[in-house]
C-alpha cells in the first residue's frame, strides 16, 4: 500500500493533483477543499489510500491520516465505494462526519451526493461504534477571495453531479450571505446544504 506521497505539485486539476515523487508524476484524487490548499510548484505531502480495481489503480489523498482512516472505514459499509466516500469527506469534515454517524444525524449524511436515507441509516447502524468520538481532528483551509472561490466551487459541484445552473445559484446564494463563509471549504459545504434542501 502507498501510505503517503510527498513531492512538488506539478498540476492541480478539478478532482486530482499530480505530485512529482522522484521524477514520477502521481495522480492523486482528493477533495475540493484539499485542492484549494495546493499550488503548482509547492511541496506537498498527502496521506494516501490506494484503491485497486480490475481496470485501474487509483490513489486518494488526504491532509492527514485521520481523514484517510475515515475514507477507508466508510467503504466497509455495503454500497459505499471510493467515489461516495470521497464525496462524504468533501461535504463533511472528519469531526462532522463522526458526529453525524455517532448521533444518527441523517440530515447531515444525506447532504452527500449519492447518499439517500437508507444509505445514511446503514452508515449509522454499521459505523456508530467504530468511528470514535468527534473532536480528534480539524483540517483548516486557507481563505481566498470570492472571485477565486466561486469558479472553483462551481466546478467542484458540477464534478459531484449537479448542473451548472444549480451550482451557480447555490454558490451565489452563499456568497451573498452577509455572515457567510468566504473560503472554498466553507462555501462548498454551505452550497451543498442548500442543494440538499432542494432535492
Automatic annotation (TrEMBL):
UniProt cross-references to Pfam families, sorted A to Z: HHH_5, RuvA_C, RuvA_N
Molecular function as annotated in GO: ATP binding; four-way junction DNA binding; four-way junction helicase activity; hydrolase activity
Localization, UniProt: Cytoplasm
InterPro entries, alphabetized: DNA_helicase_Holl-junc_RuvA_I, Hlx-hairpin-Hlx_DNA-bd_motif, NA-bd_OB-fold, RuvA, RuvA_2-like, RuvA_C, RuvA_C_sf
Keywords from the named record: ATP-binding, Cytoplasm, DNA damage, DNA recombination, DNA repair, DNA-binding, Helicase, Hydrolase, Nucleotide-binding
Protein's UniProt keywords contain Transferase: no
GO biological process: DNA recombination; DNA repair
Annotated transmembrane regions: none
UniProt xrefs under CDD domains: UBA_RuvA_C (cd14332)
Location of region: Domain III: 152-199
Top-level lineage group: Bacteria
Similarity comment text for this entry: Belongs to the RuvA family.
Complex and partners: Homotetramer. Forms an RuvA(8)-RuvB(12)-Holliday junction (HJ) complex. HJ DNA is sandwiched between 2 RuvA tetramers; dsDNA enters through RuvA and exits via RuvB. An RuvB hexamer assembles on each DNA strand where it exits the tetramer. Each RuvB hexamer is contacted by two RuvA subunits (via domain III) on 2 adjacent RuvB subunits; this complex drives branch migration. In the full resolvosome a probable DNA-RuvA(4)-RuvB(12)-RuvC(2) complex forms which resolves the HJ.
Record remark on domains: Has three domains with a flexible linker between the domains II and III and assumes an 'L' shape. Domain III is highly mobile and contacts RuvB.
Record-given protein name: Holliday junction branch migration complex subunit RuvA
Lineage of the species this protein comes from: Bacteria, Bacillati, Actinomycetota, Actinomycetes, Pseudonocardiales
Amino acid at each position: 500500500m502507498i501510505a503517503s506521497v510527498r513531492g512538488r505539485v506539478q498540476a492541480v486539476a478539478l478532482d486530482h493533483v499530480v505530485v512529482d515523487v522522484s521524477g514520477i508524476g502521481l495522480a492523486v484524487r482528493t477533495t475540493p477543499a484539499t485542492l484549494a490548499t495546493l499550488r503548482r510548484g509547492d511541496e506537498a505531502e498527502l496521506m494516501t489510500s490506494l484503491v485497486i480495481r480490475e481496470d485501474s489503480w487509483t490513489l486518494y489523498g488526504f491532509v492527514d491520516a485521520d481523514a484517510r482512516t475515515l475514507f477507508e472505514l466508510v467503504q466497509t459499509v455495503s454500497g459505499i465505494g471510493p467515489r461516495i466516500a470521497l464525496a462524504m469527506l468533501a461535504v463533511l469534515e472528519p469531526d462532522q462526519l463522526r458526529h453525524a454517524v455517532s448521533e444518527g444525524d441523517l440530515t447531515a449524511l444525506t447532504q452527500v451526493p449519492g447518499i439517500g436515507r437508507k444509505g445514511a441509516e446503514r452508515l449509522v447502524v454499521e459505523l456508530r461504534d467504530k468511528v470514535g468520538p468527534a473532536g480528534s481532528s480539524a483540517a483548516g483551509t486557507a481563505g481566498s477571495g470570492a472571485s477565486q472561490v466561486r469558479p472553483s466551487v462551481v466546478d467542484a459541484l458540477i464534478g459531484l453531479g449537479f448542473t451548472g445552473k444549480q451550482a451557480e445559484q447555490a454558490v451565489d446564494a452563499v456568497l451573498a450571505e452577509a455572515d457567510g463563509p468566504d473560503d472554498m471549504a466553507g462555501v462548498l459545504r454551505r452550497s451543498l446544504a442548500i442543494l440538499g434542501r432542494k432535492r
